[in-house]
């Protein structure tokens, strides 16, 4: 048994990306952020659909069309494949724990 909130360091100089489950058609990933945002290299343009929920903290996702969505604890979002987006803000006071399901 594991706990989604286990092994979160008090200092997070970099985001943590951890695969929890990987199958041929599904990937479940835990992401832990503390003030980090998407890389400066540009927009995410993923070949998979992504369903994401914030379990603690908060994050702000911006789409290429300018729409911004703030996700707080319990909020979830479905991002379609190739829907360009990025994370522009995460909580700097506490760890933001995301659960992402790629399908």
From TrEMBL:
<dbReference type="InterPro" id="IPR013096">
    <property type="entry name" value="Cupin_2"/>
</dbReference>
<dbReference type="Pfam" id="PF07883">
    <property type="entry name" value="Cupin_2"/>
</dbReference>
<dbReference type="InterPro" id="IPR011051">
    <property type="entry name" value="RmlC_Cupin_sf"/>
</dbReference>
<feature type="domain" description="Cupin type-2">
    <location>
        <begin position="45"/>
        <end position="102"/>
    </location>
</feature>
<protein>
    <submittedName>
        <fullName>Cupin domain-containing protein</fullName>
    </submittedName>
</protein>
<dbReference type="InterPro" id="IPR014710">
    <property type="entry name" value="RmlC-like_jellyroll"/>
</dbReference>
